[in-house]
Design a protein that fits this description.
Elements: H1 13-19, H2 24-29, H3 45-52, H4 56-67
Length: 75
């Protein structure tokens, strides 16, 4: 996790929220109960968005805004 990048698609939710705790309110804003979930170390943003019916592109944009990073191009 030490070399984790904020735009790394496969970063686990656990690592993401540990590295950038300011993302936790964003998960809660979308009513995603990933915070404290036992499987958050196995799921990534794509998994969580599919599970909760959230548009991934919009969610990533919100995460990046919360992290104070620009939204990188997604390919």
């Amino acid at each position: 996790m030490d070399n984790a990048r904020y735009d790394e698609k496969d970063i686990s939710l656990s690592d993401l929220m540990t590295q950038w705790p300011q993302t936790i309110p964003i998960f809660l804003k979308y009513k995603m109960l990933c915070v404290g979930c036992l499987v958050n170390s196995f799921h990534n943003v794509e998994d969580a968005c599919k599970e909760h019916g959230v548009e991934e592109t919009v969610f990533w944009a919100d995460l990046h805004q919360g992290m104070k990073y620009p939204t990188p191009p997604r390919g």
